[in-house]
Amino acid sequence: MAHDHHPTGIKRWLFTTNHKDIGTMYLWFAFIMFLVGGLMALGIRAELFQPGLQFWEPNFFNSLTTLHGLIMVFGAVMPAFVGLANWLIPIQVGAPDMALPRMNNFSFWILPFAFTLLLLSLVPQLFPDGPPNFGWTFYAPLSTKFGPASTDFFIFGVHLMGISSIMGAINVIVTVFNMRAPGMTLMKMPMFVWTWVITAFLLIMVMPVLAGAVTMMLTDRHFGTAFFDAAGGGDPVLFQHVFWFFGHPEVYIMILPAFGIASHIIPTFSRKPLFGYASMVYATASIAFLSFIVWAHHMFTTGMPVAGELYFMIATLIIAVPTGVKIFNWVATMWEGSITFETPMLFALAFVILFTIGGVSGVMLAMTPVDKQYHDTYFVVAHFHYVLFPGAIFGTIAAVYYWIPKWTGFMYNEFLGKVHFWLSIFFVNLTFFPMHFSGLAGMQRRVPDYNMMFESFNALSSIGALGLGATQLLFMYIVINCIKGGQGKATDQVWEGAEGLEFTHLPSPAPYHSFDVAPEVK
Amino acid sequence: MSLLKKVMSGSLSLLVFFTSSLWAAEPEHSTLNLRPGVTDTSQAVFDLHMEVVWIMFAVAGLVFAAILFAVIRFRKSANPNPAKFSHSTTLEIIWTVIPIIILVWLAKPAISLLLSIEDTSKSDMTVQITGLQWKWKYTYLDNGIEFYSSLSTPREQYVDYDKQGTEKGPNYLLEVDNEVVLPIGKKVRFLMTAEDVIHAWWVPDFAVKMDAIPGFINEAWTRINEPGIYRGVCAELCGKDHGFMPIVVRAVTEQEYNAWVETKLAEKAEADRLAAEAALKSFSMDDLMAEGKKVYDAKCASCHMPNGEGTGPFPALKGSALATTGSPDDHARLVIYGKGMMPKFDDQLTDVELAAVVTYERNAWGNNTGQMMQPGRISELKAGN
Questions:
Q1: In this complex, do B103 and A318 lie within 8 Å of one another by their Cβ atoms?
Q2: Using the beta-carbon criterion (under 8 Å), do A301 and B174 form an inter-chain contact?
C-alpha cells in the first residue's frame, strides 16, 4: 500500500491508468458539463420568464434547448455515472483496478475532445449559421436537409461520445465478470455493481445504433443517400425508429445506476438489509429487457398502424410492474428500520419520492389515446425532468455525499449538506412541477414564446431554475471544502450501518492502490 | 430594479393565480388541466385522463403515506433496534400482482378509445393539411378551396429585445390571417402532410394531434359538436418559427359553412381574374416597391429580417450578390421555386406579388440596382423561358 508513486502535476492526470484518478476526472468533467448545460437551461428559462422575445432570437433559442439536452445527457449524467463506476466498482468487488486501465484512460480523454467539437459550434466566426438547432432528438429532415453546417461537428462529437461510452461499458463488464473477489458470486454482488453491469450491456447494445443513426445523417447530408428523405425513397420516420431504439434504453442508462445507489444508501441509514435483493436484481434486468421493446411509445403521433400503437402501449405499461417492485422494496427496506437522516439519505428519499412522481406521469404517458394529447407538450418536459433531475442527478449527488468520506478521508459539512438538500428539493419542485400544468393546458415544447395564459407557470419555473442552479454552486463548495479537510477525519466504516467491502475492508481514504491482495467474501 | 420588479410581479401573479383563478370561471378552458373540448373524442380522452390521474394520485398517495409513516415511526429515536428481515415472498407477489390488475383495468378503456380515434372511415368531407415552414396550407378536397394560414400577431407584439414590454392582444400567438372553417356535426377527415420538415397539427379542443410528415400522408378525423373558435399550435419542432405557426378553426353550422364555401369560391374566381389582368400590366417602380414591401414584411422578413440583414442560417439580402449584381431572373427563380431551406413561393404569391417582392429586394436597404421585375417576366419564367 505504500508504493503509490505516480507522476505529479498534469502528467499524473494525462497518463493515469488508476481507476480512482480516472473516476475523479470523470466526476469533475461531468460537474463542469453540468454547469455549462445548466447555464444554457438558465438561458432558456430567462427567455421563457415572460411572454415576448426578450433575450434570444428564436433560432438561437432552439440551439440552447438542443445543446442543453445533449450536454446534460452525454456530458453530465453519463460521465458522472461512469465516474462513479470507476471509483466504486473495483473497491466494491475487491479488485485492484479496472480490468482495462489503459482503455479506461483513453475513454475518458476522448470526452473533452468530443465536447470541444460540439461546443465549437457556438463560435460564430467558425459557424455563422449557428449551433445545432434541431433538439437533442435531432429528427430528420430538420437535422439533415435543414441542419446548419455545425451539424457535422455534432455528428463527429456524438461518434466520439459513443466510442467513449462503449469502452467504458466494456471495461465495466470485463471487470465485473473477471475480477470479483473470491467468494463473491453474482448474486452476492452489491446492487450498484449489478445495476451498472446491466447498464453496460444496454450501452453496448444501443450506442452503435446511435452511431448508425448519425452516420446515416452524415451520408444523407453529404453523400447523396436518402435514408430519411421520402423524395429518394427513404422515410423521415425511420430516423425516429432508429433514434428511439437507442433513445429508450438510453433513458434507463441514465437511471439504473441511480437505482443501485439508492439500494446502498437506504439500507445503510435504515440499519437494515436491502429488502428483496433477488427481486431487485430481476426487476432491474426486466426493466433493461423491456427498454428494448417499447421505443415507439415516443412516436404515437407519427401515424403508426393501430396494431403497433396497441402493442407499444401495452408493452410500455408493463414497465410499471418491475419499477413498482423496486419502489415498494425500498419502502419495505425502511420498514421497521432504525432510520437517520444524513444528507445522502435525504437525497435518496427525495429520489424515491420524486422518481415516483415521474413514474406515475410515465404511466399516463404510456396510454396512447391520452398520450396523443400529452405528446410534445410541457407535460412531457415535466415528466422527464422529474426522472432526470431528482432521479439521475439526485442519485449522483446522494452517491457523492455517501462515498466522499471514503474517497477523501474527510467528512463533508453536514449542516451545509442539509441546506443544499432543502434548497434543492424546494427549487426542483418549483421548477418542474408547474410544467405539468402548462403542458396539460396546451403549451407545446421547444418554443421561445407563448400566450399569456401560461405566464404564471413559466414565471414560477424560471424563478425555480435560477434558485436550483445557484444551489448547485453550494454543492461545489461543499465538495471542495470536504476535499480540503471538511469536518475532520472519517472513520473507516464512515456510516454506522454501512456494509460492503469498501467500508469493511478499506481504510478512509481508500489508498491509491487498494486490494493488492483479494479479500475473501463469505 | 426592473428584474426585481419582474420577479415580484411574477410571484405576485402566481399567488393571485393559486388563490383565485383556481376557482374563477375561466372564459374558455382551464389553464391547469387538459380540456374536455368540443368533440366526443376529446370528452372521452378527458375522461380517461381524469381516471388515470385519480388512480395515479391514489398509487402515489399510498407510496408517499407509507414513506411518511416509515420515516416518522421508524426513525432511530423512535425505533432504536432495527428488524432484520430482508424478504417476504407473499408481499412481493402482492405488489407485483396488484399493479398488473390496475394496468389491465386502465388498458381496457384505452384500447377501445384508441380504436375509435384511429377509425377514419365514413367521413363526410376531407381537408388536406400541409405543414410548411412556418404556416399551414389547407386544401378542401371536396370543393377545391385552398389557402395558406399564418400567424397574424404583429411582429411588434412579440419582439421585445429592448425589454420594455409590449402590448399584446388576448389571442397573442394564437391568431391567424385565414381561419379554417369547418361545419359542426360532420365527420371531417384530415389528411396531413408537409413540404419541408415534420410538423404536427394540434387542436386541443378536438383532441387531434397528428404529425405532418414530408412525403407521407397521415389520417385523423374530428366531429365538432359546438360552433366556436378553436385554437391550436404546431406541436413538433420544425425550425426557427415553430412557436409561431398557430392554428385557428372556426366551427359553424352547415348552412353557414355552405355560404362560406360559396363566398370563398366566388372570391377566388374574382382574385384569379384580377391577378390575370394585373399580370399583363407593367407597374411603376413606386407601385412595385410599395407592394413589395408589404409582401416582404409578411412572407420574407421572419427569416431575412425586416432590414434585409438575415440572421443565423438565413442569409442577408442587403448587399448580397443575389440581390445586386446577380441576374434578376435568377433572383426571381429562387423565389419562385425555392432551394434547400428556401421555400418555394410559386403558389403562395401571385405573379404581381412575386415581381414586386423581387423588385423590392433589389432596391431596398441601399441595394439600389434600379432594376424592376414585371409580372409578365414572372409568368415567362414560370413557363420555363
A1: yes
A2: no
Answer positive or negative: Cα dihedral of A490, A495, A496, A500: negative
* Cβ–Cβ under 8 Å, residues B201 and B226: no
Q: Do A275 and B159 touch (CB under 8 A)?
A: no
Q: Is A135 on the interface with B (CB under 8 A)?
A: yes
Task: Pick the closest to residue B293 from B280, B278, B308 (CA basis).
Answer: B308
Which contacts of B18-21 are long-range, i.e. CB under 8 A and separated by 24 or more positions? none
B32 contacts in chain A (CB < 8 Å): 437, 440-441
Nearest residue on chain B to A275, alpha-carbon basis:
B86
Q: Which of B34, B62, B89, B241 to mutate to test the interface with A (most CBs of A within 10 A)?
A: B34
The CA-to-CA distance between both ends of chain B, in Å, stands at 63
Q: What is the rounded distance in angstroms from the CA atom of residue B56 to the CA atom of residue B51?
A: 9
- On whether the CB atoms of residues B215 and A230 are closer than 8 A, the answer is yes
Query: What per-residue confidence (pLDDT) applies to A493?
Result: 95
A51 CB near a chain B CB, below 8 Å? yes
In this structure, the number of other CB atoms found within 10 A of the CB of residue A340 comes to 16
pLDDT digits (tens, 9 = 90+) for A155-213: 999 999 999 999 999 999 999 999 999 999 999 999 999 999 999 999 999 999 999 99
Chain B 96-125, residues with CB within 8 Å of chain A CB atoms: 96, 99-100, 103, 106-107, 110-111, 113-115, 117-118
Active site residue ranges of A: 68, 97, 136, 164-165, 248, 250, 252, 263, 297-298, 323, 326, 445
- Whether chain B has a CB inside 8 Å of the CB on A470: the answer is no
User: In the predicted model, what is the mean pLDDT of residues A429-451?
Assistant: 96
Write out pLDDT tens, residues B16-35. Answer: 444 444 443 344 567 789 99
Residues 229-288 of A with CB under 8 A from B: 229-231, 235-237, 270-279
pLDDT of residue B6: 52
Place of cell 466498482: A89
* Residue of B66, B70, B158 lying closest to A449 (CB–CB): B158
pLDDT at A452 over 50: yes
| Whole-model pTM over 0.80 | yes
Rounded Cα gap, residues A21 and A12, in angstroms: 8
The crossing angle, in degrees rounded to 10, of helices B89-117 and B40-73 is: 160
Looking at the DSSP bridge assignments, the partners of residue B139 are: B128, B146
* Listed residue (A34, A321, A207) closest to B106, CA to CA: A321
SS3 string, chain B, reads: CHHHHHHHHHHHHHHHHHHHHCCCCCCCCCCCCCCCCCEHHHHHHHHHHHHHHHHHHHHHHHHHHHHHHHHHHCECCCCCCCCCCCCCHHHHHHHHHHHHHHHHHHHHHHHHHHHHHCCCCCCCEEEEEEEECCEEEEEECCCCCEEEECECCCHHHHECCCCCCCCCCCCCCCCECCCEEEECCCCEEEEEEECCCCEEEEEHHHCEEEEECECCCEEEEECECCCEEEEEEECCCCCCCHHHCCEEEEEECHHHHHHHHHHHHHHHHHHHHHHHHHHCCCCCHHHHHHHHHHHHHHHHHHHHCCCCCCECCECCCCCCCCCCCCCHHHHHHHHHHCECCECCCCCCCCHHHHHHHHHHHHHCCCCCCCCCCCHHHHHHHHCCC
- Rounded CA-CA distance B7/B4 in Å is 5
Residues of A in contact with B244 (CB under 8 A): 58, 449
Q: How far is A30 from chain B (nearest CA, A)?
A: 28
Q: What is the ipTM of this complex?
A: 0.93
Structural contact between residues A236 and A141, judged by C-beta atoms closer than 8 angstroms: yes
B155 at interface of A, judged by CB pairs closer than 8 A: no
Work out the pLDDT band at B310, boundaries 50, 70, 90.
Answer: confident
